[in-house]
Amino acid sequence: MIAITNHHNCFYVAVARLTPMHHPVIALWATRVALLVFVLELGGSLYERLVLDAAWPVNPALIQPAQGGVDRKVFWMPLHGIATVALPLALWAAWADPVARRWLLVAVATYVAMRAWTFAYFIPNVQRFERATSVDLAEARAWVRWSLLRAPLLLATTYATWRSAYYLAGRPLA
Predict the structure, then answer these.
(1) In a domain, 41, yes or no
(2) Helix (H, G, I), strand (E, B) or coil at 12
(3) Is the pLDDT assigned to residue 62 strictly greater than 80?
(4) Which domain holds residue 77?
(5) Torsion from C-alpha of 52, 53, 57, 59, nearest 10 degrees
(6) pTM to 2 decimals?
(7) Per the structure, how many domains does the chain have?
(8) Residue 61 · residue 68 · CB < 8 Å
(9) How confident is the model at residue 49 (pLDDT cuts 50, 70, 90)?
């Protein structure tokens, strides 16, 4: 942050570093935003599991936007973009509070693990499925099975974020 002050007609420039500290209002609201995003992601995951993943391996057009299918990016990209800003912001703002910091570190760790796995395996394969004229049924079903295993990471991220938000809202946890 840069601040310019005028003292006796002389201008001074003060430069301050943005260091992790406790900003309770920012921490609470950033945590609440992240929590809302993760709850929406849980709902999206449930929808995909019950509706799309149950059907698309035998009918790939359901997930092929060029064929009139669902464009998953429209839902997932904005949510992950918001989470990618809100979660580190909450961690930075709550850093001085050891309880909130601990829960937010758990949330960050599980979220990063989920996103790394998603970028390494799921995104490249789903993009291939979205472009394919025919899909190997065994590969598609394997993708669906592996995708189900991301749910515990998302649940852990959501739970840790909820614990932090609950604590920051003034309800200390044991």
Answers:
(1) yes
(2) strand
(3) yes
(4) 21-168
(5) -10
(6) 0.83
(7) 1
(8) yes
(9) very high
